[in-house]
């Protein structure tokens, strides 16, 4: 009980490594953990978002002949749910149901709202709409209103299923529940926008503006095909070394058809067309295109005989030097085997053999490092 108390104290203080150290010290001294120790350890690992360690401790507990209680299952469910270990969480949930331990009342314990929230999140990630809705109903019948995390999961689930009216309906529940959209909620709503056909964007754009007026204004500009704004935002991201955000923004531009046919493929040539892009957007597109080439190579897909990058020629409205000049030096820095075609100004070409060799050498360098 002394060790169990120490684990509880460390856990309450957020010192989760301290919990594990006490556990290891117990074993070193030959003191066998009891159920209280195991449950407090699992609770600590759940709050620490350490699902792998929770899994190992649970395996040790079963190996030592202990049977899980409701507290054990609740802690595991918290650990797996927060980390989105959907298969493990659903396995635990099934085990609970098979033993007749209902979520509403289990062994005399009333579960907290996070139990339902975690389950809704897991079902949402798996795209199981009916399970999400039935769990939500069960949660509300148990006396818990959905929080912002639940509404975010609902937005994600309905968005994946293409149920746009339900996305809007879920958004409207924010004001009914007197909740405010946080960064994760607004980001999820923006992600749904990227999966929506242009003719169906109007209602969702209004939600976007209400959730975050400043960001909503930017999205409205993008939806209205203001390519200049998308280019400028890409440049800002690249200048701030936020390449991941620049890639997300370019993906939005592609989804909304702001950028059209910039990565065409046919039997004889794969191309990257950058003439309509700013420098930042063009560099971002090159990064994405090269990642796509790597994925194609890893999957054994056959390259065509030629691969080309079309930057256009002459003065470029987004760059005083012109994209061709910038890309020529950038491709040299990457040691990429693309060379400007003498009879096609603004085109940089390479062969299948040269591209394959270059990509394989880059991959080898990454593995070696």
UniProtKB/TrEMBL annotation:
GO biological process: positive regulation of translation
Family matches, as SMART domains: SMR (SM00463)
Cellular component GO terms, alphabetical: chloroplast stroma
Superkingdom, natural source: Eukaryota
Stored Gene3D superfamilies: Tetratricopeptide repeat domain
Keyword Signal: no
UniProt-listed Pfam families: PPR, PPR_2
Key words of the record: Repeat
PPR repeat ranges, renumbered to this chain: 1-33, 34-68, 69-103, 112-146
Record-level Gene Ontology MF annotations: mRNA binding; rRNA primary transcript binding
TM spans (from-to): none
Domain Smr positions: 272-356
Family, per entry: Belongs to the PPR family. P subfamily.
Protein's name in the database: Pentatricopeptide repeat-containing protein, chloroplastic
Organism placement in taxonomy: Eukaryota, Viridiplantae, Streptophyta, Embryophyta, Tracheophyta
